[in-house]
Amino acid sequence: MNLEGGNVVGVGVDLTEVERIRAAHLKHGAAFLDKIYTPAEQRLCLAKADPYPSLAARFAAKEAASKAFGTGIGAELSLTSVGVLNGHAGEPLVELDDKARALLAKHGASRLLLSLTHTDTLAQAFAVLVR
């Protein structure tokens, strides 16, 4: 795909089963949460009556972002490199660590935009890197 001249420099999407996140948390506890989520994400999600759809949506967002960056999760980008909080109107608010900010600059992008959605069983995220 030739995106030259456009404002979009990367896209990614991911679909995650809510039950997969629930099972991993119940099996591994806080170690699972600490490996995947920033402290702020954990506080936000665990304050909900059912945190798992929100946790799953954030997991999907991290995977979608890694696809938009073209790196996957690994040495260049960790799962906690991308944090997703809520803005004033409930919109996804992206927080990037130094690794993610370096990748943003490497791609000539200025922002990572995310859209999240979930049901009781599935969570999906769409990520776009824009100039």
Which properties best describe this structure?
5 helices; alpha+beta; 131 residues; 5 strands; 28% strand; two-stranded antiparallel sheet; Ribosomal Protein L22, Chain A
Report low-confidence residues grouped into runs of 5 or more. none
Query: Would you count the extended β strands for me?
Result: 5
**Counting H and I runs of at least 4 residues, what is the number of helices?**
5
Round the mean pLDDT to the nearest integer and report it: 92
Task: Give the structure's gist in a few sentences.
The chain contains five helices and five strands; from the N terminus they run βααααββαββ.
Detailed description of the structure:
The chain is of the alpha+beta class. It has one domain: 4'-phosphopantetheinyl transferase domain (Ribosomal Protein L22, Chain A, Alpha-Beta Complex), CATH 3.90.470. Helices cover 40% and strands 28% of the residues. The chain has 5 helices and 5 strands, in the order E-H-H-H-H-E-E-H-E-E. It has helices at residues 18-28, 30-36, 39-46, 52-69, 98-106, and strands spanning 8-17, 82-86, 92-96, 111-118, 122-130. The strands form 2 sheets. The chain has a 3-stranded antiparallel beta sheet with strand order 1-5-4. Strands 2-3 form a two-stranded antiparallel sheet. Strand 4 and strand 5 form a beta hairpin. Helix 1 (18-28) crosses helix 2, helix 1 (18-28) packs across helix 4 and helix 3 (39-46) runs antiparallel to helix 4 (52-69). The relative contact order is 0.24. The model has no long low-confidence stretch (mean pLDDT 92).
